[in-house]
Design brief:
This protein is globular. The chain contains eleven helices and 13 strands. Helix 1 packs parallel to helix 2. It has about 325 residues and is α/β, with parallel strands linked by helices. It has a seven-stranded parallel sheet with strand order 3-2-1-4-5-6-11, sandwiched between helices. A two-stranded parallel ribbon has the order 7-10. Helix 1 links the parallel strand 1 and strand 2.
């Protein structure tokens, strides 16, 4: 029997690729997206239109936080799997517009958890972020590290969604896996992310802003690698009675936190160099101090992910950046 997945944020960057992978794996997918104007809506509409070429995809346009919307969709479709990717993203935007994060990330997730309580799926996969590690200086970041020092309101709302989901997993026996994503990049990416902004500026002959004078490191994760791991973990349901080595399983709930990252941080200047090589141009760089809410480095301990899935797919940085720049040139005709 064909299984049904419910994906929030299906017109988003990660949501699009996740939905496409589930469809390719034989799932029926109901995808919800608000198509907000946080970045160019045409990009989101194009992603949804490509997914809609599959008869197994049902698109729904709406906001998570709309009272009763998710409850009605869960009652109608009774999903076996929930993949919650919709959120108001962005560290710096959360300083300017915190209310949008309260609505989408907190109120919206609460609506999702209530819908799941009434119509329990076999597994819930909820997106979090490496930003929850905040001011932690012990690296690589491990899922069992204490995460109480978030440095942006965005990160604080994602940490709150982890706590909210854990409480529902405990109270209502909802098997839940939280994913902490690490700087994801690739074709069809978000225009507010570094690889997109750098590529656009370089190809247009404009200078790029390089924060903290370039003294930053990120655990960049190529989109295909992340989605392969995410979809594979759909059937790895947390069981408190069956922990694995170095597990993050809750002692009181079917709840696990998993990092999805390469486990190999890259210097920001090396990342920029890879983009320059792919573009065939050297960037003019404007060196600036660290931005409020940002952190100098991220680095995932991917040991738990390796234990759960075995050997992982890791796309070399130059290959991933090359694919993005090729897509950008084709999509924007430059």
């Amino acid at each position: 029997m064909q299984r049904t997945a419910f994906v929030t944020g299906s017109a988003g960057f990660i949501g699009y690729f996740t939905t496409r992978a589930l469809l390719d794996a034989g799932w029926r997918v109901v995808g919800l997206d608000a198509l907000t104007d946080y970045y160019e809506v045409a990009l989101k509409e194009r992603r949804h239109a490509m997914l809609a070429q599959s008869q197994a995809f049902t698109p729904v346009v709406g906001r998570l936080e709309t009272p009763g919307l998710l409850a009605g969709l869960f009652a109608e479709h009774t999903p076996d799997l929930v993949v919650h990717l919709a959120a108001q993203a962005g560290v710096r935007y959360s300083i300017d517009n915190p209310a949008s994060y309260v609505q989408a990330n907190l109120v919206g997730t609460a609506e999702l958890l209530e819908a799941a309580r009434a119509h329990p799926p076999a597994h819930m996969l909820l997106a979090s972020t490496s930003s929850v590690y905040g001011a932690n200086t012990e690296m690589p970041y491990r899922e069992t590290h204490k995460v109480d020092t978030q440095m942006s309101f965005y990160a604080a709302t994602k940490k709150a969604t982890e706590a909210m989901a854990h409480s529902y997993a405990h109270l209502y026996d909802l098997p839940t896996t939280m994913f902490r994503f690490f700087t994801v990049y690739g074709p069809w990416g978000r225009p507010d992310m570094a690889h997109f902004k750098f590529t656009r500026a370089i190809l247009e002959g404009r200078p790029i802003d390089v924060y903290n004078n370039g003294e930053m490191m990120r655990d960049f994760t190529y989109i295909d690698d992340l989605v392969t791991a995410l979809v594979a973990l759909a059937d790895v349901v947390p069981d408190p009675a069956a922990p694995v080595a170095d597990d993050s399983l809750s002692p009181v709930a079917p709840f696990r936190v998993v990092n999805i990252g390469n486990g190999a941080p890259v210097k920001l200047m090396d990342y920029i160099a890879a983009i320059e090589t792919a573009c065939g141009r050297v960037a003019e760089k404007t060196l600036l101090p660290m931005q409020p809410g940002d952190v100098p480095a991220t680095w995932a301990d991917a040991g738990l992910l390796d234990t759960l899935l075995g050997p992982r797919q890791v796309t070399p940085l130059d290959v991933g950046i090359g694919r993005f720049v090729d897509w950008y040139r084709d999509y924007y005709g430059v």
